[in-house]
Amino acid sequence: MTTTIDLTAAPAADLALADGTVVDDAIVGERGPWSGVVAAGDILTIVDLHGNQAVDTLFYGAADHAKRYSAQATIAAQGNIFLTTGTVIRDQESEPLMTIVADEVGNHDTVGGACSQESNTLRYGHHTRHQHACVENFLIEGSRHGLGKADLVGNVNFFMNVPVDPDGSLGIVDGLSAPGKRLALRAEVDTLVLISNCPQINNPCNGFDPTAVRVIVTRPVV
Ligand SMILES: [Zn+2]
């Protein structure tokens, strides 16, 4: 996929969905992880550089990793299964961690979970056992913060399209995202954000071609 603008090289301040001082700016390579603490009040912009790329994401209280994202609390509080502008990312006590303040896609998933070597084997056959997967990214990157497998919970899948049919059945289908689509989250408390740029190649969540994304953190000038 190609774009007319080189979003990889564009100035971070131009790509960020919020004004302010750029305090972090990273390309998350295809199939790779990223993590960072987003300070309260700062805004994290995630850019789907090439389109149709699932960004599996977990959230933890930076000061207390026992506070962690809860899909159940987040869905229950907003009364809707999809995440978009206005969604408050909540921990298991329903306390806010971050708020989605802008979204150019329209809906993001939090029921599809993360891919793993084990689930790949079950879904796609034993020949996929060797393939790198999101759980491995979470474990590698999470280990830098003292997180292990018991700390992994149900995650958010930004840019991933998981429609829920009237009978409740789920699909993982071609994405709604496109090159350059962005969303932005404001940290309500200091939040550790753990990302797996999904390596999946067996279903359409990454267009069968995982690509890089970009994360930019901006601090509002007061
Ligand atoms: Zn994945």
From TrEMBL:
List, alphabetically, the Pfam families matched. Answer: DUF1989
Q: Which domain of life is it from?
A: Bacteria
InterPro entries in the record, alphabetically? DUF1989, UAAP2
Q: Which residues form the DUF1989 domain?
A: 28-192
- Identify the PANTHER family for this entry: RE64534P (PTHR31527)
- The protein's name is DUF1989 domain-containing protein
Which species does the entry assign this protein to? Gordonia alkanivorans NBRC 16433
